[in-house]
Amino acid sequence: MQEKAQFAEIDRRLEQERRQTEAAEVARLKLEAKLAHEAEQAWLKAEEERLAEESQSMRSFLEWRNTTLAKLEAEALAVTDWAQFLDTSGLPHPSREGDVHIFFDTISSTFDKSFNSLLRTLLNIHQVTAAAEELALGEDQKGNVKLASKHVIDTEGICKNWSSWPMFAWTGPPTTSSNNHMESGLTKGRT
Q: Potential cystine with 139: which of 98, 103, 130, 147 (Cβ 3.0-4.6 Å)?
């Protein structure tokens, strides 16, 4: 019996040590979790402060950049406006949609049937559409899709209407009996 009492005492002590070890392990894990949480909170606070400083420094840079960009765009616009004001070519600026439409309507209704006049008219049409394409490309590169689409002249629609323009009515191949080799079927009446 005394042996049983000794075994019971040993069991009781082992159980007590196990409980103490478990309690110490739980306390250690809680302490580790608390320290990890505090370290993470300290890191988060430091990171938040760093990001706030970085954001503030970037904000002033972005304000400077936007101001500078606005000034440069205003200067470029002033130069463009001045160039348009001084332009004596008689061609409309592609940014003025109404003037472009009037230009094409005028071409379709009044023209000189001479070969040189026809070439000059075609060159003018090409210059206006090329300038409009440049404007559209510039606005597209800036990310202004609405302005880019505004500057695109409906060249497809204009080309479809060309067949109704008298200057583009085909009258046959050039004649060889003519003394002027520059004349073509375009300048003669329909055959």
A: 147
